[in-house]
């Protein structure tokens, strides 16, 4: 007969299912949950940093894009605001060229009057004045004035319909300005108010410039050649001109409208080289009819006029002789 052993197994020995005491379900759930939380935080914290970094990066990209779009837009709006504050005449829709021509014509009528024939001026002014305007437009009908050399000087555009045109004129020995207010209705102009006479500015002060050092030897060498050139230049004879101009160069002449009265001066600045820039001062003889002078009388009005002119010439030495390459109006030396 088998005897039951009295030795009780130690319940703490692993591997024996019966040796494990029963566990409290709440404690088991709490323990396993704590273990999962400890294991989860090691990976969850890394993902949180990645997403945070991505959010910051996207925020930076959005800021850069917004600033990049906003900067040119702000410049555009600022420029638009500046243009709107002081619009250029070309942006106003006002026809400046036509207004200038209209004002020039008006000034030519307005600034020429003679008490011996006031009706003529009044009739001519009608084409420029609004209906009901005083026919002489401010002139009292006495005295006389003669003006000419009318030129457009400027325009101040107020809006698409109104502007003030400034015209220059010459009356005797005086230069002046006439300010002409004009109105434009979309197809026609009218003088919208009394014009105003203004003084023209005087000539600019010209600073003194010292005489350059001169190459007298080259001046003496050039003088007979240039004298022959200017005679042929006045006559416009191409066959004769080819004797004085450089190879391959064609220079048109005056075709006899002038004749050379005098080669007054030849100025060659000191220097060297086969190509030089020189200045020639000539006196042209101009007949009263505009042609070359051939006859002289005791009446000054019928004698040819002498007109002193200055030219800058480019000359080149070829085969020991100077030839003209180009001729143009002289310029003042720069000090």
Structure description:
- The protein is an alpha+beta fold and 335 residues long.
- It folds into three domains: 62 residues; 104 residues, Nuclear Transport Factor 2, Chain: A (Roll); 114 residues, Nuclear Transport Factor 2, Chain: A (Roll), CATH 3.10.450.
- It has five helices and eleven strands, in the order ααβαββββββααββββ.
- The strands form three sheets. Strands 3, 4, 5, 6 and 7 form a five-stranded antiparallel sheet that branches. Strands 8-9-10-11 form a four-stranded antiparallel sheet, with helices on one face. It has a two-stranded antiparallel ribbon with strand order 1-2.
- A hairpin with a 4-residue loop joins β5 and β6.
- 14% of the residues are buried.
- The N terminus is likely disordered.
Can you describe this structure in just a few lines?
This protein is an alpha+beta fold. The chain has helices spanning 25-85, 96-110, 118-125, 216-235, 238-241, and strands spanning 113-114, 144-145, 148-157, 162-171, 174-184, 189-191, 196-199, 259-267, 275-286, 305-318, 321-329.
Salient structural properties:
single chain; 335 residues; alpha+beta; Nuclear Transport Factor 2, Chain: A; 3 domains; five-stranded antiparallel β-sheet; four-stranded antiparallel β-sheet; 5 helices; disordered N terminus
